[in-house]
Amino acid sequence: AQKITQTQPGMFVQEKEAVTLDCTYDTSDQSYGLFWYKQPSSGEMIFLIYQGSYDEQNATEGRYSLNFQKARKSANLVISASQLGDSAMYFCAPLGTGFQKLVFGTGTRLLVSP
Amino acid sequence: DVKVTQSSRYLVKRTGEKVFLECVQDMDHENMFWYRQDPGLGLRLIYFSYDVKMKEKGDIPEGYSVSREKKERFSLILESASTNQTSMYLCASSHPQEFYGYTFGSGTRLTVV
Predict the structure, then answer these.
(1) Most buried residue, B3, B18, B26, B102, by most Cβ within 10 Å?
(2) Do B50 and A99 touch (CB under 8 A)?
(3) Are B102 and A104 a contacting pair at CB < 8 A?
(4) Shortest CA distance from A94: residue in chain B
């Protein structure tokens, strides 16, 4: 089974600072995708950003960007200029082998303080 | 606005009861999924379905079954609820040819007492 590691159970950052959330994964697939989701306290899962393994550029979506290092099998999420509304759980999810199954990491809880 | 709707936000059931968790999507997606979420364990796949009446076991199917009689509806069934099935349950759907990740429901927090 695919293994996903999010080593930071909790992270703290001050408003307006940047923060990096780590994700490493273990896959033998050459072609795969990586998703990051945000889960606020309300519970819904919100898609943030996607990286394809063959994409030449690191993915960016507004204040979110990925530091994708394919050889190291890591896809760290960088949030620039943190806002209070960024306080949430964040999940890394590589696309599993075979049928479109997303395999989720254990998540990192981010707390943004004023 | 497209969405995945889970019928209950909170449920409290007794041990031994048969429990139905319902999920409906309005996006005409073929693929539907049930996950459970527990602190420290992330989301774990229980069952998924890629078509009407088709189902596949995920990583933790024991104690659960599913039903997909219509494309838009995917039901998770706890045949005899137990306290260790107290959890947050998340339903999701996706399109097989235009895969942009999942669309999730808002979750059902189930407590078995």
Answers:
(1) B102
(2) yes
(3) no
(4) B101
